């Protein structure tokens, strides 16, 4: 069984190569419209390049202050985000840092 850091590193590598990251549906989670998909903590770590501890800290404190991180949906005691919510947060975060 792959741990969180291992999965996140593997996914980061795939993203850096420009390869397609598998975005399969997960049995039991609601279907999302269009090409949206669910991402777990490892996926969020890979997409944001932030540590899991940072993300959970933001969730506990409602941070970061200028661009609060989206709250996840909880299914069977696990956290899942809509990929579109995470990519929108990244876009706003990049915009805040450059503008």
The ordered H/E elements are HEHHEEH
Give me the Rg, rounded. 14 Å
Number of separate helices: 4
Low-confidence stretches: none
Question: How would you sum up the major sheet?
Answer: 3 strands, antiparallel
* Global outline: globular
Taking the alpha carbons of the first and last residues, their distance comes to: 42 Å
CATH topology: the name is Multidrug-efflux Transporter Regulator, Chain: A, Domain 2
User: What is the CATH domain class?
Assistant: Mainly Alpha
Class derived from helix and strand content: mainly alpha
Give the SSE map:
Elements: H1 4-17, E1 38-39, H2 41-48, H3 52-61, E2 73-75, E3 78-82, H4 83-98
Antiparallel strand pairs: 1-3, 2-3
Structure notes:
With 99 residues, the chain is mostly helical. It has a single domain (4-14, 37-98), classed as Orthogonal Bundle (Multidrug-efflux Transporter Regulator, Chain: A, Domain 2), CATH 1.10.1660. The chain has 4 helices and 3 strands, in the order H-E-H-H-E-E-H. The protein has helices spanning 4-17, 41-48, 52-61, 83-98, and strands at residues 38-39, 73-75, 78-82. A 3-stranded antiparallel β-sheet has the order 1-3-2. A hairpin with a 2-residue loop joins strand 2 (73-75) and strand 3. Helix 1 packs across helix 2 (41-48). It is globular, with a radius of gyration of 14 Å. The model has no long low-confidence stretch (mean pLDDT 87).
